[in-house]
Write a structure and sequence with these properties.
297 residues, alpha+beta, Arc Repressor Mutant, subunit A, Beta-Lactamase, 2 domains, 6-stranded antiparallel beta sheet, 11 helices, 49% helix, 16% strand
C-alpha cells in the first residue's frame, strides 16, 4: 500500500536498487524494435497456420482427425493440436466428443452469414446474370425468400426482341413463379405444410396452381430434378426456368433463372437453356462458398 505521507522538498525518493538478476536480464534484453518485430513474425505465422487449419476443416464436412489435419496443413501434430485447441476455445471450430474429429463451429457460420448482406449478394449475382443473359438472350433473375413470397434482388436484360420490365426489388408470389417454387422446394416438410395452411394460392393467370395437392406434387418433382418451370403461371405470355443457388452450409440461399416470351421459350429451348442456367447457378453457388456445386444441384 502506498504511503500518503508527502515527501519534504529536500527529500528525494531513493532509486530502486537493481539486483544482479535484474541487471543481467536488462543487459541481454532485446531492443524494443527487435522484440516487436519478433512478435509480429510469430503472430503472422501463427495466424496463417490457424487459417490454414480452419480452411482445411471447412473442406471436410464429415469432420477430420488430428493426424490427417496435421498432414494436410504440413504441421507437426503438437503444433496443429495447440492451434486447433485455440480455435475450438474461440468457437470457430468444434471437436466431437467421441470421434475427436474437428468440424467448423457455429460462430463461423454466423460471421459468414452476416457478411452476405443483400448488397454483397447483388454484387456477386450481377456478373453471373450478365453472362447468362448474354448466352441465352433472355432476362436473368436472382431472387431470395421474403416471408411467404420471393423478392428479385438482381436482374439483367438479354438481347432478345421482347424483354420483361420487372424492376429490382419486385415481390412475387412463390406458388406461381419458377423462382418461388425453387424456394418452396427448399423448405422442410413442416415449413411447407405451414406455408400451405396460411397462404391462399391466388391465381395470377388461368395456368396458376391453386390446388395445394397439385403444388405439392410439383414441388416433389422439383426436389428430384432441381429445376422449376413457370409455364405462363404468373404472366400468361411468359415462361421461366429456375434452379437453386446454395451457400457455404449447403442450404438453398436463393433461386436463379431466366424468363422470356412463350413464343420464344419452347419446350426444346427450355431444355437447351436448362444446362446454361444450372452452370450459372453452380458458379454463383461457388461465389457464396458452396463446394461441389455441380453435384449439389
Amino acid at each position: 500500500m502506498k504511503s500518503r505521507t508527502k515527501l519534504k522538498t529536500s527529500e528525494k525518493p531513493a532509486a530502486p536498487r537493481k539486483t544482479a538478476v535484474a541487471r543481467l536480464v536488462q543487459s541481454n534484453a532485446p531492443t524494443i524494435d527487435d522484440d516487436a518485430e519478433e512478435r509480429q513474425r510469430g503472430g503472422v505465422q501463427s495466424l496463417g497456420r490457424a487459417f490454414s487449419i480452419l480452411e482445411e476443416v471447412a473442406r471436410h464436412r464429415e469432420g477430420i482427425g488430428l493426424a490427417e489435419l496435421s498432414k494436410l496443413v504440413g504441421l507437426h501434430n503438437s503444433t496443429t493440436f495447440h492451434l486447433a485447441k485455440t480455435l475450438v476455445t474461440l468457437g470457430y471450430m468444434r471437436q466431437e466428443r467421441d470421434s475427436k474429429r474437428y468440424r467448423v463451429g457455429r460462430p463461423l457460420f454466423a460471421l459468414a452469414a452476416s457478411a452476405l448482406d443483400e448488397i454483397e449478394m447483388v454484387n456477386l449475382a450481377t456478373p453471373v446474370l450478365e453472362d447468362l443473359s448474354r448466352e441465352t438472350g433472355e432476362s436473368g433473375h436472382f431472387a431470395v425468400r421474403m416471408g411467404d413470397s420471393v423478392v428479385v434482388i438482381a436482374r439483367t436484360s438479354g438481347s432478345g426482341a421482347f424483354q420483361l420490365t420487372d424492376r429490382v426489388g419486385v415481390v412475387r408470389p412463390a406458388h406461381c413463379t419458377a423462382l418461388g417454387k425453387i424456394i418452396l422446394a427448399s423448405l422442410r416438410p413442416d415449413q411447407l405444410k405451414r406455408f400451405l395452411e396460411r397462404v391462399e394460392l391466388k391465381p395470377s393467370t388461368g395456368k396458376s396452381i391453386t390446388d395445394p395437392a397439385e403444388l405439392l406434387r410439383e414441388i416433389t418433382e422439383i426436389r428430384r430434378s432441381a429445376i422449376a418451370i413457370d409455364d405462363g403461371e404468373y404472366n400468361a405470355e411468359v415462361r421461366c426456368i429456375a434452379v437453386p443457388v446454395y451457400n457455404f452450409t449447403g442450404d438453398v440461399i436463393g433461386a436463379l433463372g431466366i424468363s422470356g416470351p412463350i413464343w420464344r421459350m419452347s419446350d426444346q429451348v427450355l431444355k437447351s437453356r436448362a444446362k446454361l442456367v444450372q452452370t450459372a447457378a453452380h458458379r454463383l453457388s461457388a461465389e457464396f462458398g458452396a463446394r461441389d456445386t455441380a453435384k449439389t444441384s
